[in-house]
Automatic annotation (TrEMBL):
Keyword RNA-binding on entry: no
GO BP of this protein: methylation
Molecular functions (GO terms): methyltransferase activity
InterPro entries in the cross-refs: Put_SAM_MeTrfase, SAM-dependent_MTases_sf
Encoding gene per record: LOC112285990
Name recorded for this polypeptide: Methyltransferase
Membrane-protein topology: Single-pass membrane protein; Single-pass type II membrane protein
GO cellular component terms, semicolon-separated: endomembrane system; membrane
Amino acid sequence: MRLYEQTLPAMVEHGLLVESCPVRLADIMPCHDPKRARSFSKERNHYRERHCPPFEEKLRCLIPPPPDYQIPVRWPESLRKIWFNNTPHNKIAELKSDQGWMVQEGDYFVFPGGGTMFSEGAERYVQKLEKYIPLRTSAIRTALDIGCGVASFGACLINKEVLTMSVAPRDSHKAQIQFVLERGLPAVVGMLATQRLPFPSLSFDLVHCSRCLVPFAAFNGSYFIEVDRLLRPGGYFVLSGPPVNFQGKEREYEVLQEFVVEKMCYSLIGAVDKTVIWQKPLNTSCYRAREKQVPSFCHEDDPDNAWNTELVECITRPSVNAIDTLLDQPNWQKRPDMIPKRLLEARNVESAEFDKDTRRWGRRIRHYVETLKIGFGTSRYRNVMDMNALYGGFAANLMSRNDPVWVMNVIPTTGPNTLSTIYDRGLLGVVHDWCEAFSTYPRTYDLLHVAPLQPFTTLDKRCSLAEVMVEMDRILRPEGTIIIRDTPTMLSRVSKIAKAIQWKFEIFDPEPGTSGKERIFVGTKVFWRAEVVESQ
C-alpha cells in the first residue's frame, strides 16, 4: 500500500513523511476537479460549482510544483509579467492574443492590460467609467469582478486604491484565477450558478461584469438578485458585453433593463457603446412603492448566509439600521481602526473589545517584524491569508502600515460569521469550511496566518488537523511562510505534522504582555521537486 493511500493521521503517528502526489496533479483543486464535475448537471452551470471529494477520495499526498517551477516574480513587477513555467497554460494567450489579455514573451507571460471588451485597453475603459463612477474618491473601496479574465480591470483599479475581488470558474480557459493570483491580485475560483457567492450582504461598492455571459434576468432574476444582495446602498453595477447593444440580443436587453430599473429600482447612470452602468437605490422606499411587488421581499432569509446557500428569487431585506449605518460610514481610510456600526448592532460587540483587538494586532505585527524578522513591508510577501480572521485586525494593521500586501481574510464556518465586519473595514475575505479544500490553485499564497487553531480542532470528527495542514501546504508557495499562534500543546501537534510534510520551523515566545501560554510557530515550506521526495 502506498503512503498516500493511508490516512494522514496514521502517517504522522508512524513518523512517516507524507509522499509527493504525481506531477500530473500539480494544478489540482480538489473541489473544482473537472473529472468529478462531469457527474453533475450542466443546468445553470451547476457542474462548475464546488464539488468536493468524499473522504475516501481526499488527497493524502503533497502537491508538487511543475517541473520547471521558479520562485514567483516579486510584486510589483509581477503585475506586468510572470514566469511562463509557473503556469504553463498557453491557451488563453493563443486564443486571446488579439484582445490583449496576455502574450508569451520568452520565459514570461506578459499582461498588456487588454480584454475582450477593452478594445482600447483597460486603462481607457476605466477612464470612461470614471465619468459616471467616483473611482478617484474614497467612496469606492471594494469591487467584485465577475468573470474576470486575467484581471486587467482589477489591476487598473489599484492606483485608485480600490480592492477588487476577481472571480472566475475553472472553465475551458483553465487557469484564469491562477494567472490572477500569480500576478499578485485578490481572486477566488467561483461563478454565479445555483449558489450564493461566499461574500456577505452589502459588501461591495462596485460589481463589474465584462462579457461574463451571465443571464442576469433569467431564472426570475435570481442572478441579479444575488448582485443586489452584495451591493451596498448607492453601489454601482457595470455590465459590459452581451446583451448590451448587441445585435440579436435586443429583446434580452429589454427584459434585463425592465427587471433592473422597474422591478429592482436601479437608476440608469450612463451607457457607453456596449457598456451600461446602473446604481442601486439608497433605501427600500422604491421597492415598497412598486405597483407589483415582484420580486417580493424574502420573509425568512439571512442575507449574510453565503456558505452552501442556494440563490433566491426574492429580495433580501437588510435592516433599516444596516442601511443607515453603511450610508453614515466615514471614508475607507478611517475605517480600519473604527468599529463598524453593523458589528455593534448585530453582535453586541463593545467598542472597547474591538479597540483592544486592533491594538493587540498592532503589537503582534511589530513583534513579528522587529523580533521574529518576518519580512512584512518588503517584496517578500504579497498574497497573504488570515485563515481565522475574526474582525480582520491582522489585515487592518498591515494595511495601516502601508505594507505592499493584500490579505484574504477567511471566516471559518465553525465560528461566528463576522465577514461583514471585514468588508466594513475596507478589506476583502470569504467564508470557508476548512474541512474542505479552498477555492484556489496550488502555490497561490506567500504567507498563511492562523490565530488560534481552536476552530479547526472542532473539526476533528469530520477531518483531521493533518488534513487541514496538507491543504495549507497545497495553497502555499515554495519558500512561503506559515505563522500559527496557539498553546504549547496545540503547537506540539502542529510540529509533529509539520515534520511529516517537511516544513522547517521554529517556535518562539510571544510579544511581552501576552497573557496565557500562547506561543508562535513560524514555518517555511521547503522548495522541493517531486522526484526528490518520491525517492525517499
